[in-house]
Amino acid sequence: MTKLSVNINKIATLRNSRGGNNPDLVKVALDCERFGAQGITVHPRPDERHIRYQDTFDLKAVIATEFNIEGNCKEQKFIDLVLANKPAQVTLVPDILGQITSNHGWDTIKEQSYLKDMVSLFQDAGIRVSIFVDPVIEMVEGALATGTDRIELYTEAYASYYHKNKEQAIAPYIAAAKKANELGLGLNAGHDLDLDNLKYFAQNIPNLLEVSIGHALISDALYFGLENTIQLYLKQLN
Ligand SMILES: CC(=O)[C@@H](O)[C@H](O)COP(=O)(O)O
Ligand SMILES: NCC(=O)COP(=O)(O)O
């Protein structure tokens, strides 16, 4: 079964636009869980333009499903935040400062010894680690050498090519997933997954443990409502 983790960054974006507490991020997270989501994902960025560092503590205190914090471990503040929160999972993403959204995976070969240190730092604190990677065999193999528990395949390329040629769009992801399976690495995926492209992805990727979805899901909720939308996404996965 593939778990659905709802990324609630966009709820925080909306809240921050007026400076108050509407929509209430914690309430939305609890509602996502009540509506069937099996996890909550946040990706605090250094400028706190959506998720604020304090949000992670407020969420950790109440979330009953899997809490996944994504971010750039080259920021000491991010490391401290994750260690203080002890979420179920940390997803390490190689963002650069000021980036609009995540746009690449780790180079797990060049950054191998650095990632090794980061992975053991979080694992020693009892936190499962996932490393964000492009669907490239060498990067999957490099991830294994870091000691990570899982990888998260960066699905932007799949999503943007899906409507042109879905077989070609998914081919590198199937190869990367098979390699991860063979090496015993757990497999997550995310970025730009939506109601059009999710089913085909989930049906074709072997042993996909979890998808994290934010932008499209929250946008769909404007039309279908949050409860219906989460049910629609869950249906694509099963
Ligand atoms: C890691 C990843 O794939 C991103 O999708 C991210 O979690 C979303 O971040 P933003 O909401 O800041 O675009
Ligand atoms: N890890 C990917 C994620 O959390 C959500 O990405 P998106 O659906 O907002 O593109």
From TrEMBL:
<feature type="binding site">
    <location>
        <position position="18"/>
    </location>
    <ligand>
        <name>3-amino-2-oxopropyl phosphate</name>
    </ligand>
</feature>
<dbReference type="InterPro" id="IPR004569">
    <property type="entry name" value="PyrdxlP_synth_PdxJ"/>
</dbReference>
<dbReference type="GO" id="GO:0008615">
    <property type="term" value="P:pyridoxine biosynthetic process"/>
</dbReference>
<feature type="active site" description="Proton donor">
    <location>
        <position position="191"/>
    </location>
</feature>
<keyword id="KW-0808">Transferase</keyword>
<feature type="binding site">
    <location>
        <begin position="214"/>
        <end position="215"/>
    </location>
    <ligand>
        <name>3-amino-2-oxopropyl phosphate</name>
    </ligand>
</feature>
<feature type="binding site">
    <location>
        <position position="192"/>
    </location>
    <ligand>
        <name>3-amino-2-oxopropyl phosphate</name>
    </ligand>
</feature>
<comment type="pathway">
    <text>Cofactor biosynthesis; pyridoxine 5'-phosphate biosynthesis; pyridoxine 5'-phosphate from D-erythrose 4-phosphate: step 5/5.</text>
</comment>
<dbReference type="GO" id="GO:0005829">
    <property type="term" value="C:cytosol"/>
</dbReference>
<feature type="binding site">
    <location>
        <position position="50"/>
    </location>
    <ligand>
        <name>1-deoxy-D-xylulose 5-phosphate</name>
    </ligand>
</feature>
<feature type="active site" description="Proton acceptor">
    <location>
        <position position="43"/>
    </location>
</feature>
<keyword id="KW-0664">Pyridoxine biosynthesis</keyword>
<comment type="subunit">
    <text>Homooctamer; tetramer of dimers.</text>
</comment>
<feature type="binding site">
    <location>
        <position position="101"/>
    </location>
    <ligand>
        <name>1-deoxy-D-xylulose 5-phosphate</name>
    </ligand>
</feature>
<feature type="active site" description="Proton acceptor">
    <location>
        <position position="70"/>
    </location>
</feature>
<dbReference type="InterPro" id="IPR013785">
    <property type="entry name" value="Aldolase_TIM"/>
</dbReference>
<dbReference type="GO" id="GO:0033856">
    <property type="term" value="F:pyridoxine 5'-phosphate synthase activity"/>
</dbReference>
<keyword id="KW-0963">Cytoplasm</keyword>
<dbReference type="Pfam" id="PF03740">
    <property type="entry name" value="PdxJ"/>
</dbReference>
<feature type="binding site">
    <location>
        <position position="7"/>
    </location>
    <ligand>
        <name>3-amino-2-oxopropyl phosphate</name>
    </ligand>
</feature>
<feature type="site" description="Transition state stabilizer">
    <location>
        <position position="152"/>
    </location>
</feature>
<feature type="binding site">
    <location>
        <position position="45"/>
    </location>
    <ligand>
        <name>1-deoxy-D-xylulose 5-phosphate</name>
    </ligand>
</feature>
<dbReference type="InterPro" id="IPR036130">
    <property type="entry name" value="Pyridoxine-5'_phos_synth"/>
</dbReference>
<comment type="function">
    <text>Catalyzes the complicated ring closure reaction between the two acyclic compounds 1-deoxy-D-xylulose-5-phosphate (DXP) and 3-amino-2-oxopropyl phosphate (1-amino-acetone-3-phosphate or AAP) to form pyridoxine 5'-phosphate (PNP) and inorganic phosphate.</text>
</comment>
<comment type="similarity">
    <text>Belongs to the PNP synthase family.</text>
</comment>
<protein>
    <recommendedName>
        <fullName>Pyridoxine 5'-phosphate synthase</fullName>
        <ecNumber>2.6.99.2</ecNumber>
    </recommendedName>
</protein>
